[in-house]
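TA notes, week 10

Several of you asked for a full example with nothing omitted. So below is the full record: structure tokens for the whole chain, then the designed sequence directly under it. When grading your own attempts, check the secondary structure regions first.
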């Protein structure tokens, strides 16, 4: 009997550890992310809730959240200057994020994905 209880306890502990460590990979500093976004004039073209010239970040989060490689995709998007389509139909290279470090870039990506 004791043996069974102990293994149940162990199972729940393992589950808790798995949960906390998976949320850790999306740990971010929301304030630092917003400062970086403002510095980069991202918000001229994107609202958090509202579409501007670019789609609302909440929409982007909803689209990418479930993808396992969401972080890598958005990081590529923000660092490569890949072509994007504007509402008037013209295409141009997306703004390249100016960031002091890859960690700052990842922080912004993780924050956008959390919206
Ligand atoms: C000059 C306007 C403009 C600026 C400035 C701008 N964006 Fe964008 N952004 C767009 C447009 C337009 C799209 C693409 C819309 C489409 O393809 O449907 C886009 C797409 C995105 C996407 C989605 C990419 C995808 O693959 O779906 C993200 C994330 C994003 N922008 C983040 C940012 C961040 C962060 C900044 C600041 C560094 C920024 N944008 C600055 C116009 C802009």
């Amino acid at each position: 009997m004791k043996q069974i209880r102990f293994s149940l306890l162990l199972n729940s502990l393992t589950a808790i550890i798995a949960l906390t460590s998976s949320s850790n990979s999306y740990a971010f500093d929301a304030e630092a992310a917003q400062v970086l976004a403002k510095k980069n004039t991202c918000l001229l073209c994107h609202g958090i809730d509202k579409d501007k010239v670019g789609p609302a970040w909440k929409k982007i989060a909803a689209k990418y959240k479930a993808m396992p490689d969401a972080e890598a995709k958005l990081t590529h998007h923000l660092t490569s200057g890949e072509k994007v389509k504007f509402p008037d139909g013209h295409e141009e290279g997306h703004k390249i994020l100016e960031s002091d470090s890859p960690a700052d870039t990842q922080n912004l990506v993780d924050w956008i994905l959390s919206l």
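Confidence is low (pLDDT under 50) at residues 16-24. Use that as a sanity check on your answer.
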